[in-house]
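# step 3/5: fold
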Amino acid sequence: MVKKILIGVVAALALCVVGILIAASTQPEDFTVKRSTEIKAPAVKAHALVADLHAWDKWSPREKLDPAMKKTFSGAASGVGAVYEWTGNKDVGKGRMTITAVDPGKNVKIKLEFLEPWTATSDTEFTFAEAGETTKVEWTMSGKNTGVMAKTMSMMMNMDAMIGTDFEKGLAALKALAEKSI
């Protein structure tokens, strides 16, 4: 009797795992997270704070997650080729950002690589559009959920909600800083 119950439990668990794997395989491979804000400042003010990775500690919410985070900068001082690497606590992990393209006052494109506690590469872009006395700043991150594990995780974690909150905090801090330095 115990053997039959054990076989039934194992079979039920196996069906659950198969069901999760099937559901995960149907998840979209691509993801995009996007947030924006209006800043009462010229585009060049906000753009300068994004294109200079040394300035991110003034507005990026990730910086506040680990004040003792180890940071290194290499490559160009700012703009294309600038590299920012970090190693920190469990909240920030280990990673690297590399600026790959800059159109002054218009956009900044960044290759974002998470190295620990998981590996992932995403494309990040900031766009700046002036309209009168304000600038619309849009922060977008896009990437791929490749593999069964990444797709399974995407079923449990809403990337838009999780990362979008950081984007909102970062854009609010960027706005305050850019408007203050007019």
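# step 4/5: annotate
Strands lie at 30-39, 70-75, 82-87, 94-103, 107-116, 120-131, 134-144.
# step 5/5: archive (pending)
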